[in-house]
Amino acid sequence: MKNIIVLLIVVAAIFIGCSKNPASTATTGTISGTVSKLADSTAIAGATIVTTPATSTATSDSNGQYAITGVAAGAYAVTASKSGYNNNTINVTVSAGNVTFGNITLADTVPGNNPPNAPSNLFPANTATGISITPTLKWLCTDSNYGDTLKYDIYFGTTNPPITLISIEQIADSFAQSGLAYSSIYYWKIIAKDNHGATTIGPVWNFTTVAEPIVWITIPAGNFNMGSLNTDPDALTDEKPQHTVYLDAYQISKYEITNSQYKAFMDAGGYTNSNYWTTDGWTWRTNNSIIEPAYWTSGSYNSGSAFPNHPVGGISWYEAYAFCQWAIGHLPTEAQWEKAARETDARYYPWGSTWDASKCNSYYNTSPDTFTYSSPVGFFSTGTSPYGVYDMAGNIWEWCNDWYSSTYYSTSPSSNPTGPITGSSRVIRGDGYNLSAGKYRIAYRGNDGPDYRNNYYGFRVAKQ
Q1: Where are the beta strands (DSSP E) in 182-274?
Q2: Which whole number is the average pLDDT over 327-336?
Q3: Any alpha helices (H) in 304-393, and if so which ranges?
Q4: Cα maximum dimension of the chain
Q5: What is the Cα–Cα distance from 128 to 207, expressed in whole angstroms?
Q6: Burial readout 418-433 (b: 16 or more C-beta within 10 A, e: otherwise)
Q7: I need a labelling partner for 115 at 20 to 30 A (CA). Which of 57, 235, 342, 423 fits?
Q8: How far apart are CA 159 and CA 167, in angstroms?
Q9: Per-residue pLDDT tens for 67-125?
Q10: Residue 100, Ramachandran bin (φ over 0: left; ψ between -120 and 50: alpha; else beta)
């Protein structure tokens, strides 16, 4: 009998040990804790507990206990209040499927004590634009009670309201922030606390950071060889003959114009000010109700504000021209584009005369190219031109100022050519991310109607 009992116990233990709880599928968590007196830790019943961001509210029971269920994962400020006590706020982080404990102590109301005044006199000012990506946040907060000291919790982020707690109970009334993105909206708020436990939650403020500046590369005056030799087996007819061109000194943007930079043009009224547009471009824009690049709102093809450092795509020649006017520049002429890409030695590719798929964003997706669509500008540091200009092979096609003619090189002026006087299509250069190797040659020419938009059509800017 003793052996039978032992055997049953062993079997039961094996059965229990092999059982497995199903994996949790919870999407929310719980905030639970007690509310007690600061002076003697006795329970406080009937305290109201609220969260920021707002969820459901709770009331502490006779044991001072409370629970708020169904709380989405994230950071929260939890505030307890009851008449006769100063409010107090603690900070917690909730994870799905778990209980987060937040015990709160309340101090007896100090006779005549008032909570801090709402934070004010902020910098940056609410809704301010053009703010540095490394701002120092500042505010003024006072308390009507003589001798009170104040501490601050700071919430900051890209959501409204902000949920990321970046500083807890700091004494200083300023905070140095860094690492922000260009042309982005940020939200922030201050929770002020006095030394008696009284709390004041300030309003949510926001500001927009400055647009990414255009970095310029200076191209010196002088001659260069434009086009392809008649003996070049890869050359197409419209690339011939190779001819010597003199250009005055000019500047060209080091990188293709990014989504971040283009957003600054949009925010400045670029689509509502006809002064930036050609007459035909403005007619096209208004007749087609164009208010942004193609794919901008959807975010497809690495477009829009979610991809600030990618080249803007979905751009017609008309839109590229308008941006350049707003930026007090111009689209590069075809000759300016080609000299910036090859210098004076008539090289095939920006980096030399041998094809290397690892040096640009191309159809071949050779490491480090892992991009399905565009890559961030400046990613391929080994594929720059002799002047240090990035992405002049691959990534996106770039609009030039010139009208296109397949025979223009036979009649082109030898000094500062600007292309034919008229035409039906405009020149594009540099090739997109989806073409084969031969078309990434510097001399390769493309063209399209000035109203045509494609996800891999973008541009860069030049100026004298």
Answers
A1: 185-194, 199-201, 205-209, 216-219, 222-226, 243-247, 250-253
A2: 97
A3: 317-326, 334-342
A4: 112
A5: 5
A6: ebeeebeebbbbbbbb
A7: 57
A8: 17
A9: 999 999 999 999 998 888 888 889 999 999 999 999 999 888 777 788 999 999 999 99
A10: beta
